[in-house]
Amino acid sequence: MPGTETKHKVRDVNVRMLRGGSGPPLVFLHGANGLPVWLPVFDLLAKKFEVFVPEHPGFGSSDNPAWMRNIGDLAMYYLDFLDGLGPYQVHLVGQSLGGWAAAEVAVRNCSRLATLSLLGPAGIRVKGMPSGDNFIWDAEESVRNLYHDQSIPDRMLAMPVSDEQADLMLNNRFATAKFGWEPRWFNPSLERWLHRIRIPTLVVWGKNDKLFPSAYAARWGERIPGSRVEVIADCGHVPAVEKPEQTAKEIIRLYAGTR
Amino acid sequence: MQFTFFHLMPYRPLDLTERHKHRAGWVVLPNSLYDPKKGADEYQSYIEQLVYAEKLGFDVIAVNEHHQTAYGMMPAPNLIAANLIARTSKAKIAIIGRALPLVNNPVNIAEEFAMLDNLSRGRIITGFVRGIGNEYHSTGINPFFSHERYQEAHDLIVQAWTKPGPTSFEGEHYNVRYVNLWPRPYQTPHPPIWIPSMGSSETIKWAAAPERKYPFLVTFSGRDLVARYLNLYREQAKQFGYEASADQLGWATPVYVADTDERARQEAKAGMETLFNDFLAVPFQMLLPPGYMSLPSMKNTLKMRKALGAQKRHSIDELMESGTVVVGSPQTVRDELSKLRDATGAGKLIVMLQFGVLPDDLTRRNMEMFAAEVMPQLRN
After folding, report:
1. B299 touches chain A (CB under 8 A)
2. Which domains does chain B have, with CATH numbers?
3. Of A111, B94, B300, B333, which is least surrounded by CB within 10 A?
4. What is the CATH number of the domain that holds A183?
5. B301: which chain A residues are within 8 Å (Cβ-Cβ)?
6. Which residue range is the domain that position A94 belongs to?
7. pTM summary value
């Protein structure tokens, strides 16, 4: 069942947002490739949650405010966004760039968060284990290197790209560079504040992640007190797409543990 | 016309078979392919060529900056400029240019240029560029902020050169409490600033603005594009309420002259083809990282690229056909250059007479023929 598409306004910024399901609110923060479509994992989560998937400012067809300059601005924007959803505790999930944003939100203020799920998040650096250079990868590598099961990129690359889609993808690429180019995919001060995340937290990583090595998962686990780390076999950088059942199951399990 | 002899200083001994085992001749090309002994010979040859250009009557000798590449061996072009100052006496020395956004304190650029200007007693011409897209990969600087950093760095450098110090500068990217150059530039108000560019309407408008009137140089483009961009500059100047002078308009192109068209084509072929296909060519995502161009320009570029299809090797005939390079007998070269001069009103010609793997002996003959049989006729 596809989610419905809405516009969501926070202060001066209008963003595109997909939503569906019913239950306690879950906000999913997408990764660098944006939010082209409602994903199967959202359907699985929608069985338990009311799922909100905002398209970040600067991505796709969302507004691109000039003041949005760095990951800290994105985090503060999402604190405003959560306030705007109403007086609820929210389950926050973030994939890659979205996981970085979710962690930046959580170190600032956990009071609105019920749980936190980080799926292959950017945001920290483990010395000696450099991330893949997604900005030097060509268009095909950029898709292939994100997945372990190559039938997924086979299907994606076979789909024709309209001029309109190409424009939206370029918006995503620009916004991604703004947040992630330098320092490459991390905020030097984030790691030292991760202890401030004092809510039930799950870290999910694809064992075969070529962008951020799965060894990063352990570092996140060490830094966030009481967090649980799940490394998924035969899975690349995007567990939510490559292993939707397992990803949804772990998020739901985290939620069940809070009840 | 004012004539500039421009050098890129490519690393000619590059193993081209090895080169193509890598993504590009930039950033990721292993520097084990660089042999310092051969490199030292290259520097010596190239500096001799630049010094010789003064003897041949060129008005300006010029170098530029590139990083982590076999395409050009001048990550620090001011070092070459300092050497040229000591070995020449009348030619202007142009550094076109320094890549402003790639540094974290542009005051350093202002200082170095001011030093060179003093050392040369006012023979320095500067160029302000953003660096090629590849250089955002090699330096790590975020291309998303390239335009902003360029503008701020420009403002900061000009302030450092012209406002009695100490002053301070308050920008988004550069915030400097003490701007107080010792030495100040030798020339008043400051050394000339040239703007080499592949051409973008934003840059043209900015360079042509009455408070700047910076000479605009179109680089490495076919004759139609050169004419289009230079005429755009003239149009823009008119809109600003003045007539652009010939001095404000220039173009940069590789040139090869020999007795006959056929001989010129044969002798230039390897040099021209290696320049464009082996040294310069890089994948799209390296050449144009996100933000290097504005979003609308990038969207247009992507559509044009989609229409053009896959990139292939350029032959010398295609390069000559499009007017990206000028190759032929003295008569052919004179005709081609004067046609473009007359169509655009350009008063600056920046020629690259060594390009790609072109060897020293052919370079020298090319320089001599150009100086004897092209330059004097075009001067008036």
Report:
1. yes
2. 2-379 (3.20.20.30)
3. A111
4. 3.40.50.1820
5. none
6. 4-256
7. 0.96
